[in-house]
Recover the amino acids of this structure.
């Protein structure tokens, strides 16, 4: 089951560049939350702070608190523990090129020392079914490399890989921006299915996409969060002038 | 005009390719021509005959080269790969890494005869006698820089996205490096090891003061040992036609064995590669 995320006074830097300034918000459990905003506004940095991937860059720095469920992720846990609870799907599909489809999905478990073969088989099948890829790959699970799939299939494989470690939160950083419309709509359907079991945070450049999949939407601009509200309110009656300008296409 | 330029560039590229390939083919054809006639079963089963007696073979030198290269690989491959992993993954940007990289580059430029002399004074003089071990060590140290730098470069070519994918799954960094990054780069790393292997397989100079050479059977690491390049050297500068022919045959066998070893490793490591893997 998903858990809520509580962000308090989050600041983040790349070197001397203050990319996130005083972010405060509560992301509800078992819903999809979309983050929109122009390029470079900090929305990707924000999701990377939620699983401590931001700090893998040597010049990056973070202050503030992030609570995921009851866990203060910057003070109570190590990055690897958090990343097992907070799965991530990246902008470009990034399957492990030398691994089979099966091993890609099982990678998170296998690399953390899990080796019960029968349980692995079940988890791989369940994850691939949940990511709507099972029927397309079930005959080539161990024969084909993850890299041999199409772009859309690769992205669903990456989702299956993230689901296999049974996370509570799924972060998606523009998961469909490198895909064609058909694959994009498959990914969106998937987000719709998955949000009953996981808390989903999706960064997107596509405002229709945000409107289609998310209950809540946050608008980021120049490293600050301008507005966070129900998606319906953001797209029909935003309270901030800048949000209105952005969604009506006056800038960005 | 554009088609003309296109044609000219294509022609130049083809010409350049021919210039590259010609010496290789010429050497191989000449070797076959000079060496093949002296190849017979005895060459692979007998040891050298005394001066004046015709016939004999290089069985001991083939075995000796195998032993020397085995020792060299056992030393050079793990150290080289380990160093490369350090340079690319754990020590990136540190002073130690820069020092290691510089040292490896200098080591790569050390003339092989100097390597032989260094090992002579470090091992042979202390042991009090020439040995297969010292020859293997000399060759192994010569393998390290090539293996180390190709490993580093191949690891750096692994896309950042692949590393992030592993970290994003909660895999610890060391595990991600060993199981994902190194595995993804392994075809290139193996190529680097093979290049280093092929290079030292033909080295003669570092063996002159270390393995020394041997006209008899020996498999002991503690005794002087025969090696194909040494045997070729001795036979080629001798005044006997019979020995000259054997030297040609030896050179042919040396090249053939290197090609065989490289192909074998390629074959073994390419099994299990999946459809569509890149």
């Amino acid at each position: 089951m998903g858990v809520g995320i509580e962000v308090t006074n989050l600041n983040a830097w790349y070197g001397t560049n203050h990319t996130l300034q005083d972010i405060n918000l509560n992301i509800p459990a078992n819903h999809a939350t979309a983050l929109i905003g122009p390029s470079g506004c900090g929305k990707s940095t924000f999701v990377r702070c939620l699983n401590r991937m931001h700090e893998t860059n040597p010049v990056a720095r973070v202050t503030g608190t992030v609570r995921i469920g009851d866990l203060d992720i910057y003070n109570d846990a190590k990055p690897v523990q958090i990343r097992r609870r907070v799965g991530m799907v990246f902008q470009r599909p990034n399957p492990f090129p030398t691994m089979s489809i099966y091993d890609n999905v099982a990678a998170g478990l296998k690399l953390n020392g899990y080796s019960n073969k029968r349980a692995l088989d079940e988890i791989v099948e369940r994850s691939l079914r949940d990511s709507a890829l099972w029927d397309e790959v079930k005959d080539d699970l161990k024969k084909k490399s993850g890299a041999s799939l199409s772009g859309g299939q690769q992205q669903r494989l990456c989702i299956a890989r993230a689901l296999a470690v049974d996370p509570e939160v799924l972060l998606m950083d523009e998961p469909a921006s490198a895909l064609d419309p058909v694959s994009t709509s498959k990914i969106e359907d998937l987000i719709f299915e998955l949000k009953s079991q996981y808390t989903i945070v999706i960064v997107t450049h596509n405002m229709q996409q945000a409107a289609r999949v998310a209950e809540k939407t946050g608008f980021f601009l120049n490293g600050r969060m301008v507005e966070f509200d129900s998606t319906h309110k953001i797209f029909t009656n935003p309270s901030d002038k800048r949000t209105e300008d952005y969604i009506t296409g006056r800038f960005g | 005009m554009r088609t003309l330029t296109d044609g000219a560039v294509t022609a130049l590229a083809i010409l350049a390719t021919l210039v590259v390939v010609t010496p290789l083919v010429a050497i191989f054809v000449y070797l076959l021509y000079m060496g093949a006639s002296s190849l017979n079963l005895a060459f692979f089963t007998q040891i050298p005959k005394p001066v004046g007696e015709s016939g004999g073979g290089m069985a001991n030198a083939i075995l000796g080269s195998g032993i020397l290269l085995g020792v060299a690989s056992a030393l050079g491959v793990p150290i080289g790969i380990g160093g490369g992993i350090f340079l690319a993954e754990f020590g990136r940007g540190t002073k130690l890494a820069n020092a290691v990289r510089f040292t490896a580059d200098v080591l790569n430029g050390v003339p092989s005869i100097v390597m032989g002399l260094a090992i002579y004074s470090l091992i042979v003089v202390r042991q009090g006698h020439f040995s297969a071990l010292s020859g293997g060590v000399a060759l192994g140290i010569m393998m390290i820089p090539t293996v180390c730098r190709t490993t580093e470069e191949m690891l750096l070519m692994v896309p950042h996205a692949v590393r992030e994918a592993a970290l994003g799954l909660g895999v610890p960094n060391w595990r991600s490096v060993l199981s994902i990054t190194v595995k993804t780069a392994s075809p290139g790393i193996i190529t680097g090891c093979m290049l280093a292997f092929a290079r030292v397989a033909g080295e003669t100079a570092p063996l002159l003061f270390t393995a020394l050479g041997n006209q008899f059977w020996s498999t002991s690491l503690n005794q002087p040992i025969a090696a194909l390049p040494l045997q070729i050297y001795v036979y080629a500068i001798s005044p006997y036609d019979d020995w000259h022919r054997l030297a040609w045959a030896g050179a042919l066998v040396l090249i053939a064995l290197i090609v065989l070893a490289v192909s074998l490793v390629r074959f073994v490591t390419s099994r299990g590669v999946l459809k569509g893997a890149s």
Notes: The longest helix of chain A spans residues 117-130. DSSP finds ten helices and ten strands in chain A. Residues 117 and 244 of chain A are 53 Å apart (CA to CA).
